[in-house]
Amino acid sequence: MDLDIFVPAVPDLFLNLSQRFGLLLAGGFAIMTMAPFERMNFGRQRPLWSLLAVTALFGIFGILGTYTGNYVFHSYANLRAMGVITAGLFGGPVVGSGAGLIAGGHRYLIDIGGFSALPCALATFLEGAAAGLIARRFPGQALDWGVAMALGIVGETVHMGLVLALSRPFAEAVDLVEVIGAPMIVINAMGAAIFVKALGLQRKLREQRDSTEARRILSIASQTVAHLRGGLTPDSARATAAIILSETGVAAVAITGNATILAHVGAGEDHHTVGEPWRTKATRLAFESGTALFLHDPEAIGCAKAGCPLREAIIVPLRKGSEIRGCLKLYGTKDRPLGKPLFELAKGLAALFSTQLELEDIGIANQLLAHAEIRRLQAQINPHFLFNSLNTIASFCRTAPGQARELLLDLARYMRRNLDSSRGLVRLSEEMDQVRSYLAIEQARFGERIRSEIDLEPGCQEWLVPPLLIQPLVENSVRHGLQGREEGGRVRVTARRENGHLRVVVEDDGLGMSQDVVDVLLSPRTLESMTEGVGARNSNQRLIQLFGPEYGLRVESAPGRGSRITFRVPPAGKPGEALPVSA
Fold it and tell me: How do residues 186-241 score in pLDDT, each as one tens digit?
């Protein structure tokens, strides 16, 4: 084009570029808030298709920035920089370089051999690449508007320098820069800053929305976990459905089993009756297909009741392993429509509930294992204890028949509790009766060599503990700690409430144990002989199985210095009480 074409004044160029900038910013931000682009700016790792889509999108922004309608001295006063700088800060080096290559390549191709085609194309690519490298180097500042403005100023200043260095004739390059330099530097810098600020606000709004949804899921999960611990029953289903209805504000919530309605609260509960077979075709479809459904019309729901108010439905299968056990359903009405966030919420809740149903099996397995451990311990009761006890009682029959009678009662109580102690948690007072019966028999055998002391804090007697837990520890102290000393010794049992737990200590002043023996007692491996401490090992394993690793035995001992065994028991049902209370 001839040089005598109309050249806009600098103020007019400022105004024209500002108008075009506003249109580009509005259009770009509108597109970025639409699916699927809305989720592309969250998370550093993106799939290839996402990178390509974002790169192409910003490349198009850069191309549109070329067509501002301001043709000056055979060149273009343009807004490419605001698009490619934002691309680099938003998507990193790949997106920034790609968008710069697209926009810059387009600029070069539409004016091959033109007055400023090469420096303009090169500057556009360099601005995108530089922004991407800065985003990678300083990820926390990537969407900072100040960084974007600085890049716009520096990038467009370099752009003008490249025009002066590479465009010929030089005099025309100077004239061009005098006209377009200041407007392009200012408007591109402001445009990049505002574009980046808008994207940052979008991300914050999205994060707030996601955090709100996460808090709602956690709130529902924390309230429902106690109800679902025992499995999917009508009672647990109704309690769970009522919590979800209250937290989400949907029109109705239902939970089904594999053939019947377990709970339905809210709109439609007059005919979606608990205990009856499924009423909707959609429930059967979700159950049989194993896929989550989002339905938007009553016909798709398929309720046969005329006038049913349910207009929309979200139906998500509930799994237990690979088996589908039921469905979670959220319903909408004309006044309370459903949305995609609720669909995602329902899928998240269904996953949590499915996990809880699987944990039910683990809890049952732990209960069975705990019962099996007690039975194993009962089977391994040293027959010599029974034999020696009977001999001791026989020796008292002539010399002290009254004491012999009491010892027989102690032995009877001891054996009866051993044979009937695997039904559940027992009161501490009952467990200590077992200990007293055992000690009475041993003290009758060894006289003053075996001394004992039991100290229970008032109020502890009703605390629930696993059965056959303390007596094996006392027996371990007597057999391995005190009997080996000629002068015998003392065993002491104390129980105190401490930080919301029951703290029990069994200690003696006997022979003590080496660290190797302590390690064997606390090791999870199978015992190889009766001399390794079946009772103590069993007590430790049951505490861990029932309440968790932090509730195992704590053993302090050294040869010649006695032993001290400590353990804690949480309140019944906390944090993992797995056994029912023994009747």
Answer: 989 998 998 888 888 877 777 676 667 667 776 777 787 767 766 778 888 899 89
CB contact set of 339 (below 8 Å; sequence gap of 6+): none
Task: Tell me the pLDDT tens digit for each residue of 466-498.
Answer: 887 898 899 888 888 888 888 889 999 999 999
* CA-CA-CA-CA dihedral for 476, 480, 484, 486, to nearest 10: -30
CA distance 581 to 583: 6
Beta pairing partners, 508? 491, 563
- For residues 581 and 47, what is the distance between their CA atoms, to the nearest angstrom? 54
CATH number at residue 302: 3.30.450.40
Q: List 263's β-bridge partners, or say none.
A: 255
Side chain identity at 15, as an amino acid letter? Answer: L
Would you say residue 564 lies in a domain?
A: yes
For residue 565, give its domain range: 380-569
Cα dist. 540→438, 498, 537 in Å? 20, 20, 5
Q: Rounded to an integer, what distance in angstroms lies between the CA atom of residue 298 and that of residue 334?
A: 11
Length of the chain: 583
> Do residues 384 and 354 share a domain?
no
Report d(CA 529, CA 419) in Å as an integer.
22
- With contact defined as beta carbons under 8 Å apart, do 281 and 259 qualify? no
| 489-498: strand order across its sheet | 450-456, 489-498, 501-508, 563-569, 554-557
Strands 489-498 and 450-456: parallel
